[in-house]
Amino acid sequence: MLTESSPDSWVDVNDVFRILKSGDRFLWPSWRDGHTHLYLYSFDKQNPLGADAKLERQLEKGDYEVLSVEAVDENAVYLTANQGDYRKKGVFSVKLDGSDFHLLSQPEGWHSASFADDGKHWLDRYSAATAPPQWSLCSVGGPCSKVWESRSVADYGLVAPKFLDFKAEDGTTLYGQLLLPAEASAGKVPVVMYVYGGPAGQLVVDQWGGTTALFHQFLLRKGFAVFTVDNRGTPNRGRAFSAAIRHQYGAIELKDQLAALNQLLPQYPQLDKERVAIWGWSGGGSMTLYAMTHSDVFKAGVAVAPVTDQRNYDTIYTERYMGLPKDNAKGYDDGAMTKTAAQLHGALLLVHGTSDDNVHFQNSIQMIDALVKADKPFRLMIYPNKTHGIAGKAAQTHLFQLIEEHFEGKLKDTSSP
After folding, report:
1. What pLDDT is stored for residue 414 in this prediction?
2. Which of 4, 76, 104, 257 has the fewest C-beta atoms lying within 10 Å of its C-beta?
3. Catalytic-labelled residue, pool 352, 356, 360, 406
């Protein structure tokens, strides 16, 4: 009925496909023009495999990504997209004839939606970087009424991140954000970089960041600056941006992270270039290990639940952008931190849950073995019976205190090796 290919990148996986109520048309997402947009096809519902589906039209277009389809009625499609700013997400509607594409949600920030069956009413879930989630019931083309909101954080003095732009070596714009202590002498503020870096995670967004963002506010009060940048390869920026990392892991991502850091430091002379740390979780844990084994910039790092060899991770994710191991053995080898353990620079804290159902515990076992054989010192924290999120108040409190103490000891205690 329909074949989608993308020889210079990959075909992304999502659940945007929708068969319309008429039974002879469907919506299909594709980034064939460089960005993810919606395409309307028709087909013979009596014999759907008898011929190729017919493209009726592209419903919308532009320099943005369609992120989800939330509802379809007889006249319109209701979707979320990052039109206007890749760091924000809004709720939009567009008619099935391709007309009247417009924004439904307000204010700017991060919105998701759940639509009623009639397609005329919807639940708007909104947040922003310093605004915790709130929900409103809305009618299409009509007013919204708030029905729930998080407890106020007004008394906590949260600091809004500074949204910044940087340039990759090829001129591509990279988006970053910085939390900076209000008072600091030149060259005195240690920097903690928070990283994800992979094709499944965008960090620099105008969205409530939950526990991790509050932990960063805590680090800020302890005198640390917290810096984040989305390198090439992260999602929701179009095909070329995402596919820049095709068939390799780590090199381009680290190059962009360091390029942004090198552009940041001259702009903020209060930052100490000699006291820079890095940390991340899951893919961010992997990037932390890659950075600490492929550069000498970082004095300390914390890798939580990292993939240490791409061969260890699930095929639908890894092979989508890395290709098959038999066809890209060098790419897999170059991205395996277990093979470069002897190059470790800086004080590493490695963290994993024994029951991790996503990034299996074997990843850290292999890294431990490689570090021991390379005679590299490191710290290790294991959380028994915890899965990928290391969930629970006791475990998360323990973890974040451990991370903060690691950075205190390695970035502030000058006697610490």
Report:
1. 59
2. 4
3. 356
DSSP 348-412: EEEEEETT-SSS-THHHHHHHHHHHHTT---EEEEETT--TT--SHHHHHHHHHHHHHHHIIIII
Give the model confidence (pLDDT) of 42-68 as tens digits.
999 999 999 999 999 999 999 999 999
DSSP state at residue 251: H
Number of neighbouring beta carbons within 10 Å of residue 375? 8
Cα-Cα end-to-end distance for the chain: 62
pLDDT above 80 (res 214)? yes
Phi, psi of 298 (to 5 degrees): -100, 125
Our answer to whether residue 356 is catalytic in this structure is yes
Token duo for residue 336: 């395996």
Q: Is 102 among the residues known to form the active site? A: no
Catalytic residue of the set 282, 309, 352, 406: 282
CB atoms near residue 200 (< 10 Å): 13
Q: What is the pLDDT of residues 94-114, one digit of tens each?
A: 999 999 999 999 999 999 999
Residues 157, 222: Cα–Cα separation, whole Å:
14
**What is this structure's pTM?**
0.96
Q: Which of 121, 247, 345, 388 is catalytic?
A: 388
Place of tokens 């922003």: 128
